[in-house]
Amino acid sequence: MKVLMVNKFLYPKGGAETYFLKLGTQLEKLGNKVEYFGMYDKKNVVGNSWKQYTTNMDFHTNGLQKVFYPFKIIYSFEAKRKIRKVIKNFKPDVIHLNNINFQLTPSIVDEVAKHHIPIVQTVHDYQMICPNHMLYNPKINSICEKCLENNKIECVHYDCIHNSKIKSIIGYIESKIYKMLGTYEKVNLYICPSKFIEEKLCTNKIYQNKTKVIHNFIDIEDDVTENVKKQDYVLYFGRLSKEKGIDLLMEACKKLENIQFVIVGSGPMEEKCKNIKNVRFLGFRNGKELKEIIQKALFTVYPSVWYENCPLSVLESESLGTPVLSTKLGGTQELVEHEKTGILMNEISQEQLTENIRSLYNNKELLKSMANKCIDKRKRMITLKDYCEKIVKIYSKLIEEEKNEK
Questions:
Q1: What value, to the nearest 5°, has the Cα angle with vertex 29 and ends 26 and 33?
Q2: Strand, coil or helix: what is 75?
């Protein structure tokens, strides 16, 4: 089987990239031929045989080319043209989309549909139903579902995209264009990593009967040991941004001076995590080094104030024998087994977070019990191999349906 994997970034940048790169590698191990399409970047670790990539767009630098970004991030004729070349040369049996907005744009869906190739898309965020992709209003630091209930013009009213009126107008225009073109209806199947995101997606009738829930996989090497000695620290690892509850966490850290915290990650709120006496900020870490840090932690904390989808960090923490203290929002509640593999907080506040961290830290018996239950749970979690086999079955079914329609 020939599979074209599509994602805007072709290097390990975040959870979506970790997902699609590992899936692509596993597909190849099973004997499939895999090519990749995305944006050019010197950090790319995968690509395609015809060197077809969209031009790099760096939103953090100044330059004349940025003048054209508002047009390119709504509808990319370049992405359509270049993916067309890859399709004509590779002739894929199926195309698997991941994060495509801004750098690639959903314009590529319109192009793929012309070639009558089955399209699968893994839903990594809320982009198709919320212009800022988050169902969260950063301006008021609150969950927001106004675009589900009303017209997406609400995005403009509240400056939902980076607190910018112009960016929010662009997001609104984008949503109107793809609704008019019926672009999202051309995708054959949406893979939802949580029941929660499936329910939110299916509030729009065009996605109903076109979804399948499969929780994200874990990828644990054989050399992971179960009897790692825990060290005296509480861990947060992941993106350092407002919606992740970093403000709440840092205030809790300051009030819990007797507890050592370790922060691993990068993002716009890095500076908030520095120069606090009992906080050790390690920055970005990955691979074996990160796994050791996770394994040795007493527990991990996820104080997210937005609807998480199916956070790989929670799955990874549990699979490495480390309990999770988390808010109850979004798909996280499908992953953490309350008082077994972690604690789910009913209330989101700095006071409640502080008290939950203190209480759990002081209950070493419960922590030990939950750590053992996390290790037991690992045997029930979906592995990369199992996940890939499910995906291949989905591909095969869609390919067969496409043949029958011709």
A1: 90
A2: coil
Residues in the chain: 406
Q: Are 118 and 398 in contact (CB under 8 A)?
A: yes
**Kind of pairing between the strands at 261-264 and 2-6:** unpaired
Q: What parts of the chain have a pLDDT lower than 50?
A: 63-64, 67-68
DSSP 307-338: -----HHHHHHHHTT--EEEE--GGGGGT--B
What confidence score (pLDDT) does residue 71 get? Answer: 58
- Predicted pLDDT at 406: 65
Supply the pLDDT for residue 223.
52
**How far, in Å, are 8, 135, 226, 266 from residue 14 at the CA level?**
12, 19, 27, 10
Q: Are strands 119-122 and 189-192 parallel, antiparallel or unpaired?
A: parallel
Sign of the alpha-carbon torsion through 346, 352, 353, 359: negative
Percent of the chain at pLDDT exceeding 70: 95
CA end-to-end span of the chain: 19
Q: How far is CA 147 from CA 66, 155, 206, 214, in A?
A: 28, 7, 15, 26
How far is it, in rounded angstroms, from Cα 312 to Cα 239?
A: 12
3-class DSSP state of 237: strand
Domains and CATH numbers, the chain: 2-124+188-217+383-405 (3.40.50.2000), 234-378 (3.40.50.2000)
Conformation bin of residue 94: beta by default, left when phi > 0, alpha when psi is -120 to 50: beta
Count of H-run helices and E-run strands, the chain: 14, 14
- The answer to whether 195 touches 212, Cβ cutoff 8 Å, is no
pTM of the predicted model as reported, rounded to 2 decimal places: 0.90
